[in-house]
Amino acid sequence: MSHLLEVRNLVTEFGVKLGLRAVNDVSFSLKRGKVLGLVGESGSGKSVTGFSIMGLLDRPGRVAAGRILFDGIDLATLSDGEMRRLRGKRIAMVFQDPMMTLNPVLTIGTQMIEAVLAHDPVSKEVARQRSRDALGLVGIPSPEERLSAYPHEFSGGMRQRVAIAIALLHHPDLIIADEPTTALDVTIQSQIISEFQKLTEQSNTAVIWITHDLAIVSRVADDIAVMYAGRLVEMGSVRNVLGDPRHPYTKGLIMSVPSQNRRGEPLRQILGMTPAISRLPSGCSFRTRCDRATEACAVMPDLMAEDHRAFRCFHPMTRIDA
Ligand SMILES: Nc1ncnc2c1ncn2[C@@H]1O[C@H](COP(=O)(O)OP(=O)(O)OP(=O)(O)O)[C@@H](O)[C@H]1O
């Protein structure tokens, strides 16, 4: 099966003069129906990667280099109009805050009907019916009545369901879900994850799930890509990477969250802070926080491939280090 999405050597910069690279030389690919978990601490470049693919970067952000091949089309070369025709139809995004999708002054029905008609020349009645069905699918009770409600009349969880319903309206090939459940309480979070998974599986939609939560990744994703200071530092199957990490940063992330397998062991935080992209050390960006760093790390390591995974480290972990 060929790839639906191939991101190659993506560089996204903020600030023309400074050339600050929020995303630096990032490459990954995704097949139809597969889920990639994109993880890393705050500021590592996860959202900017998502916005770069969607063509939704805030100025002065811009894709400065690389290719974003979606079903063979390089999204980085499309005009705003061409990108608008794809967005919502073939590629959709779900944000942490559903109000990034919803307009507070319009009813849900008006917004959903507009979203259907933006890409499909159907009658208003058909668009309304599709909107009602979509609300039903994401578990909104009495969908017909709820079409007349405004966003503020929904709870946070229900608002996120509506945003998911809008993202799924056109059965997109790819959804970028940026921390879609982070703001919700744990029970609602779990229900929404299950329903989102069921619906995307049914329509064979590929998903990039952006999160800092490794428990969510191990639940939803096939593959994982770990970002640090704008670069991918490790990627591979969730089983390989989370079960037997190579990069000390991946290991640090795993050790900083509670796990059934390590009950009774103290949690260990990664020392120090992620450096700002304007103040990265030369060489490996993680070396100032890494207890395995040596002089060799003053040079940026390439991504090294090994058994269906890749990592960017001169002193990788092995099972013995665990
Ligand atoms: N509009 C902007 N202008 C300037 N810099 C920006 C802008 N948006 C993001 N950045 C910078 O890009 C880097 C990556 O940010 P990004 O939002 O992608 O991180 P993230 O990994 O998604 O973190 P979080 O989990 O906090 O959302 C950060 O250093 C951030 O300061």
Automatic annotation (TrEMBL):
Name of the protein described by the UniProt record: Methionine ABC transporter ATP-binding protein
Limits of the ABC transporter domain: 5-254
Main location, first listed in the record: membrane
Xref: Pfam families: ABC_tran, oligo_HPY
Membrane topology, from the record: Peripheral membrane protein
Subcellular location: Cell inner membrane
GO molecular function terms noted in the UniProt entry: ATP binding; ATP hydrolysis activity
InterPro entries linked to this entry: AAA+_ATPase, ABC_Ni/Peptide_Import, ABC_transporter-like_ATP-bd, ABC_transporter-like_CS, Oligopep_ABC_C, P-loop_NTPase
Coiled coil, from the record: none
